């Protein structure tokens, strides 16, 4: 069964990453695009020449040839168009963050259950084998008892007109990339924080441009740094009583650098594992197709997205309360 996909909007990310991934994925076909721009449509037709272009998102949802919809719109539009897609009988993969707060995600979960369709967040890292390897190593006790997690993710976008600097549209470093440092900690450990213990957030234009957050989990602590106005960098490190696990390209594997895991243990052993050829966006599309066909469950549910959003909500609340 081939899944016919449509994309709502001709965003740069959809053009450069998810559109080509859908086109390349096994069992998937990029069938339709919603955009009123002929120039933007041409860029998609360059790799998907038989693409049907609709001049409105509603027209995309009315297309009977479309099975699944990918929603890469600005953050504040995610819930609205994901719900519209489900009501139109389409499976939906919606970009992160799904909602601007956790409570917004509840009606989408209810609608997913009501329709029986697949609806999930496009959290691509959980489809990359490096993260399944981290989870296995932690569960297997490769570094002993986990004591602390360090996460860092930053990029430099000086354009203050960018949607990420618009508070009304869900801007800020935590909604944009905090979902990765926080969500990957949750995914790898299978735990949620008990308490946000410290926040230090720099605001600009009404959004957080740099956030330094500390949290306490059952048995370990975590510290996460996100920023969208400093030099790009990313890494995740898991510190245990008997060793460490370090990922040098945990989030944008392939684009930022080669996916590499370094395991160092207290007996002096050092192991390096690499995944140079994995295309995590393609893996994500194929995993979603498998879930639609009923072959395997999708690795990241709306409930997972809601749990990460609850942490972000708690961080904002902690910072506001002082």
Write the SSE topology.
Layout: E1 3-8, H1 12-24, E2 28-34, H2 38-45, E3 52-54, H3 57-61, E4 68-71, H4 78-87, E5 91-94, H5 102-115, E6 119-121, H6 129-139, E7 146-156, H7 173-189, E8 195-204, E9 207-216, E10 221-227, E11 229-240, E12 243-247, E13 259-265, E14 270-275, H8 280-292, H9 302-321
Parallel strand pairs: 1-2, 1-4, 2-3, 4-5, 5-6, 7-10
Antiparallel strand pairs: 7-11, 8-9, 9-10, 11-12, 12-13, 13-14
Helix pairs in contact: 1-8, 4-5, 5-9, 6-7, 7-9
Mean pLDDT: 97
Q: Roughly how many Å apart are the termini?
A: 53 Å
Q: Quickly count the helices.
A: 9
What order do the SSEs take from the amino end to the carboxyl end, as H and E? EHEHEHEHEHEHEHEEEEEEEHH
Structurally, the number of domains stands at 2
The backbone outline, from C-alpha atoms, is: globular
CATH topology of the largest domain: Dihydrodipicolinate Reductase, domain 2
Quaternary state, please? single chain
* Sheet with the most strands: spatial strand order: 8-9-10-7-11-12-13-14
Percentage of β-strand residues: 25-35%
């Amino acid at each position: 069964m081939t899944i016919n996909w449509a994309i709502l909007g001709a965003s740069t990310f959809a053009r450069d990453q998810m559109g080509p991934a859908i086109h390349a994925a096994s069992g998937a076909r990029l069938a339709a695009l919603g955009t009123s721009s002929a120039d933007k449509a041409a860029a998609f037709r360059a790799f998907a020449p038989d693409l049907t272009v609709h001049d409105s998102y509603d027209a995309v949802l009315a297309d009977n040839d479309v099975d699944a919809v990918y929603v890469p719109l600005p953050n504040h539009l995610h819930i609205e168009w994901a719900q519209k897609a489900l009501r139109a009988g389409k499976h939906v993969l919606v970009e992160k963050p799904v909602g601007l707060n956790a409570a917004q995600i509840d009606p989408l979960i209810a609608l997913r259950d009501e329709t029986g369709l697949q609806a999930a967040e496009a959290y691509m890292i959980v489809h990359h084998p490096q993260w399944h390897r981290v989870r296995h190593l932690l569960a297997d006790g490769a570094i002993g008892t986990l004591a602390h997690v360090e996460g860092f993710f930053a990029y430099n976008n000086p354009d203050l007109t960018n949607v990420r600097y618009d508070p009304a549209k869900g801007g800020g470093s935590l909604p944009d990339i905090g979902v990765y440092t926080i969500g990957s900690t949750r995914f790898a450990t299978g735990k949620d924080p008990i308490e946000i213990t410290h926040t230090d957030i720099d605001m600009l234009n009404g959004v957080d441009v740099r956030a330094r957050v500390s949290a306490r989990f059952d048995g370990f602590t975590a510290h996460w740094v996100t920023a969208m106005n400093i030099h790009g960098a990313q890494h995740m490190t898991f510190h245990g009583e008997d060793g460490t696990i370090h990922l040098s390209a945990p989030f944008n594997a392939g684009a930022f650098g080669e996916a590499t895991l370094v395991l160092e243990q207290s007996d002096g052993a050092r192991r390096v594992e690499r995944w140079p050829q994995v295309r995590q966006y393609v893996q994500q599309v194929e995993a979603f197709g498998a879930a639609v066909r009923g072959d395997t469950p999708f690795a990241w549910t709306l409930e997972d997205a809601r749990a990460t959003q609850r942490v972000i909500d708690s961080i904002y609340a902690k910072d506001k309360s002082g």
